[in-house]
Amino acid sequence: MNSRQYCVFGNPIKQSRSPWIHQQFASQLNINIDYQARLAPEDGFADAFKSFVAAGGEGANVTAPFKEQAWQLCDSLSTTAKASGAVNTLYLERDKLCGDNTDGFGLVADLHRQQVQLIDAKILLLGAGGAARGVIPALLSENPKSLTIANRTASKAHNLQNHFSDSRILACGFDELQAGSFDVIINATSAGLAQQRPDVSSSIIGANTICYDMVYQAKPTGFMTWCHDHGASQCIDGLGMLVGQAAKSFSIWFGTMPDIDPVIEELRRLLIQGK
Ligand code: ATR
Predict the structure, then answer these.
(1) Domain that holds residue 71
(2) What atom in ligand 1 is closest to the CA of residue 86?
(3) How far is CA 184 from the centre of its chain?
(4) What radius of gyration do the chain's Cα atoms show?
(5) How far apart, in whole angstroms, are the C-alpha atoms of residue 260 and residue 108?
(6) Which of 189, 196, 214, 223 to mutate to test the pocket of ligand 1 (most atoms within 8 A of CB)?
(7) What local confidence, expressed as pLDDT, does residue 180 receive?
(8) Whole-number Å distance between alpha carbons of 253 and 29
(9) Please, what is the angle between helix 130-140 and helix 154-164, to 10°?
(10) CATH value at residue 156
(11) How far apart, in whole angstroms, are the C-alpha atoms of residue 147 and residue 150?
């Protein structure tokens, strides 16, 4: 039987764990897939995707910097993709290109997995770029008490607040964050990529605060270490979110949700071993 062709588009893309993750899911469910990481030129995503489909590709994940371009390319968008302005999952339905965004699902699924209470929680989201925007619909659907978006550039946080227009959303600059602890703090900034961390006061962390960094690495991230040093009760990295968003994409393509836990465990083991 021919394998079903899927891929992830990004630039850069060499570092992507998605081919390995989707291969694990496919093995679990006895599905024959060929899932590749594909580098697209920064100004050539649409052409790269069209060539992939012309050669038999059935669907794709999309990562930085193409999530907004993928959104624009779609004929039809899920409610989440529509609201978040970004697409990370593409599939074809009766020749129409459909887009969804599973990042928020991945984040919320991982928070649930770690028994983090979101209902009535005071959530702080650091960052107001694409990564933050992509997870806001899923966070709101968990019925938090409030969702504060704080960003280094305050105007971008206000833009997001206006875009979502939900009375639970508050917006401010880092320096306007009031002392007093949040229940959950999520780092959606790209500061870590430059070995930095968002410059916020440690007064936002209390003894019951849970901190989540949407990125991951072999060791705890700088943000996690900082939160831990200032008394956070639990610090979690984004590895579970990565596997969770992939699982949701897989279920969109194949109609079955794979088992996330063994894949997270194995990926963690590989990461610690430096593989
Ligand atoms: P992404 O798609 O990863 O969200 P982005 O849209 O470029 O990328 O957004 C990057 C986010 O990280 C922004 O919120 C950015 O803050 P500014 O809007 O003020 O630029 C934030 N960010 C990047 N580097 C940062 C740093 N060193 N400290 C704090 N925030 C940072």
Answers:
(1) 4-101+240-272
(2) 2
(3) 16
(4) 19
(5) 13
(6) 189
(7) 83
(8) 13
(9) 40
(10) 3.40.50.720
(11) 10
